[in-house]
Amino acid sequence: MDIFVRNIPVQATEKSLQTFFRPILGQFGIENFACHRFRGRGFAVITVLEVECAKAFLIGLNLPVAQSRPLKFMGRRIWCESSRRPLNDFLVKVLQKEKRDKQRRQMRMNATIYDDEYYQEEPECNQPSEAKDVFPIFGVHCGLWDYDRDELVFVSHLKSLKAGTLRFGQRKATVILQMNGLEGSHFIEMPYDSIQCITPGGGAVPSVTFSLDRCPRMYTKTLADAKSSSLPSSSVKFDRVSGINDAHLEITGNCLVYRFLLLADLELIMELKNRQYMPTILAWTTRIIQPCAALAQGFLDLEKATQTQISDCHFELKFQLQKLTLNNHISPWSVLELLPVILEIAKRSGDDTAAAAVKLLSRQIPFAGPATEARELCNSELLKRLIENEKVINYFVQHADEPEIKYDHITRVYQATVTPAGIYLHGPQFEGKNRVLRCYPEFTSHFLRVSFVEEDGRPLRFDQTNHSILYSRFSSILNDSGIKVAGRVYKFLGFSNSSLRQQTCWFMAPFVQNGELLCAESVIARLGDFSLIRCPAKCAARIGQAFSETPLAIPLKEGAVKVIDDVKGDEGRLFSDGVGTVSREVLEKIWEKSQIKTKTKPTVYQIRYAGAKGMISYDPGLMGEQLCLRPSMIKFQGRNSKFLEICAAGDKPFPMFLNRQLIKLLEDLGVPPSAFLELQQAAVEDLRKITLSAQNAASYLELSCLGTTAQIPWLLRTLDSLNLSFQSDGFLCDLVEITVLIALRELKHRSRIPVAQGFTLFGVMDETGYLGQHEVYCTTDTEQKGRVVLTQRVAITRSPALHPGDIQMVQAIDVPEDSPLRALHNCVVFSQKGSRDLPSQLSGGDLDGDLYNIIFDESLFPKEVYFPAQYPRVEPQDIGRPVESSDMADFFLQFMEMDKLGRIATLHQVLADKRPLGILDYDCLRLAKLHSTAVDFSKTGIPADLRDLPRDFGHFRPDFMANGPRATIQKGLRLEDLEEDTEPSFGPDKDFEPYRYYESDKVLGQLYRAIDEQRFFSGLQRQARLLKLHPRTLSRHSLLGNVWEHINRETQQVKWRQYIDWARGIRELYEDNLIESMHRYAMHPAHPLDELEAFLGSILGKYGAQSKHQREKSVGLRAKVERDISFIVDHIVSNDEEPAKQETAPMMEELNNDHGPPAPGQETALAKSIACLFLEVENGAQRRTRSYGWVVAGVCLKELEKWKECLSHSQFTAANKTADSASG
Q1: Total domains present in the chain
Q2: Which pLDDT tens digit goes with each residue over 719-756?
Q3: Which of 47, 540, 694, 1080 could cross-link to 888 by cystine, CB 3.0-4.6 Å?
């Protein structure tokens, strides 16, 4: 039922109305209601779920008693009556869902199941508190923590005496300060996950100090018309700023401690510590002192020292020193004090060692503050750490090759992050090469990859408040000032298409090569001729081809490349858009360079060559070394390139997964819900079985390509064969559980359901002309299943799929034995016949590297097939002159502002669920067209016109779009209840109405509710606890100790103790690399990933499935961790290592006297791995990671297996020789 409310002030918010009416309606038994005010109008509507109670409330208002005490809201009398407007059905669904959710939460709070720790009641400290949460303040200091001998002191670099308030909310603390001389205010927002510690302090002036690990968000609020303070909230303007005044701008990126001066109530702040999600509150009275010099002066002093004292040192050392200060590890003055010792290290061990020692130091330094003792940051302690780092690094300089020497496809990449408030440095990291870096191998440090992001590392969400940040701060860095690093000035260079969507681009500093000064313009000119391109977006996309990561580069002979004609249909459409051919001789060079050892080798590749890009497929008819490109592949005239660069290979059929877009498409095309529910249920059952046995766990890890570099699947099977249960080890159990949790969240929150009868494959064209219209040739070849050719009707589609015609039915056929197509595998071959090519019918696809989904599960076949979308071609922007660097930089900013691809796709998903016709609804078809325009924005420069966006009245979304329970790993894997967000909105988000959710009755809602994460995961952990009680898992030793006993028993004759010191260094190297990855790929460096996430190379979604940003970070994380683990494993098993001389040699020699003569064959590798395992078992308390022991255990068991085989072979050979001698 709707209640109409009249005469409310236009400044009223929905939150304020809810707060006012909650106790009043509660007297009539009304707990579930929603308020909707009409912006700028003096009325609102209250929707109530309990109809009879609402009627009682209205009747009560008309009673004489009530008439004598009328309702007054914000000083005004208001009137309530029954509304005559139609009821919003979706709002009713929302209220029904919220009521059920509240009841479920209450049941969980009341339940006490002692045999399941998940359901136990939270400790008292986590319960909500009724403590005061708004405090008046009269000033703010911004500065740094420091130490005066052993005393913690606050160094104030900014003081501003402004009246205001400090408010503690559910997820953040917000400070509102009055602006000087203006009717407006400053807002400072500090999310709780950015606060290390809150420190109330007494003394003459009570205060509360916030120690942050990143800059807060800051806004200015002004009125559009300062003469009137009674304007509606729509006249209020919020602007994102980098500081509250000019003085603050100078320090905001490097001063992360804020002290607010309280008028009173200091003791009440301590009562807030019992609130859930509240950061640590630690009472500590500290002195305020003035700095010896301005922070800017400290940076200038360090810059001068860099130019004078270490001017001849390598760039990386200067980079690391600047990173120490810019990233707020220590102050510039502290770095100046360390400089003499760093110079000594550089002279003694070299600049690279000194740089590595400083880089390692940056991860060892704790943040100054109440939780850190003065001795941990004193000069002597930092010097001690530097010298220890030097020793560790020197060891590996002598005993290990650099990764870039061992792997020629990677190089060091320097990185910077630009936020609204600061600039921070990262790296260098080993990453895949691109063409530009490959062209200048001696000057890679002159290239800088720069990300423009939020303070917390996530992409900057553009709205009107961020306009000044985008077009003032970011624009000045891109177009004018650049980024100054260690005496160099890096200026904008370019970006790839993928990095554009990640808000990342490349900068470079000038350098001299062969007597020629090279800057950004000259580097681009060397790539090719772009003078004929008049569209900044297209020009940037073409230049961006050179920034695509290409792991392999194959030299080609002169004359090996030729251009062949494109294939066109009757209506002039391209059927060969983006695909060429290649000879076997070129393929063999690729196979040799990529060291493919499998019998089945790729026959299709995604490539870059000069100005060309696209796919190439094997043509057996080409002789010699030939690469055939088509005009559709050549995007510009490239220069000076003799290398064929490989981006990706069709080396296997990729698994097929459904997603929400495709499920909605299929549902509205007639596929019954039962088809999806059965597939999901089968996937959930498979996940449930994973932890039951080593075989199940190993198979799933292999299928998911998780832990394979560290040989974890092989290790689990081997432990099982030794009658050792992985369930008895905490790390291995957690590893398998987090793998299951990540997969479960992908199922529930993204509907990413595996389809066994489906593939994902690269697409190429039938060069023979054999295939007819609506026919495809789909072939796969794997070592497990051999060659498979589909010969049936199949559904084919690609992502994204929003239009009903984005999925088509075609006939998959076989080809004659003598057909050249027989040479292809792990791809789908499209026909060159018909009026329109099939790839373009599938969401505008082509053949330059798009992946296609092939479904041969008949239960998923659409009952209806629609004509594909046919949108008019969008003409690229034309600026009427050659494109300049500043044009591309401006487009980079424009794209950040106007890329609405995600917004369009989300609205399509919402409306398709709400509208009876689903994706066939007119508004959904309009959105599909807008989405197509938005996809091409990066190449055409023409953004989607948001004025064409359909309206979705009411912030109501289907339940499958809601967040899930919060996942934490720090103290073991755990899912927490999702708390209802009751924090009042104010500040820049004041007019943003939070989304509310209803239970969708469509298939996506059914799939979502079919998975209960908490029940599933608690059952999984209960099952794990029962397995630990099994006799097989009970032992007086740890599982790793049992492995050691087995190894020690089997290798009595192997000498390994001489490798102890060497093994200690190996462990240091492994731990340092993994910890570096945990920090580098975290959403924010101050909140490192858990070891499990880093080891698996998969970041756990906090409130559901991984976000797009987390998925992108996970790709880089996995590549680095796999590379690091491969390096460690290769180093252990290599046979060129000499045992280090040890001071304890006589004792070791005596210990080794117990062992027999060296065994033949694999002894060195086995001995080294035994030493590594021994060190981990004996000195486990000293370890910084849990995973290393299982990496070396896997290596050790593998080498033991090889050694036994070698030993058996030797004994067999010796026996044969003896027999031959006897017979002779």
Answers
A1: 7
A2: 999 999 898 888 999 999 999 999 999 999 999 999 99
A3: 540
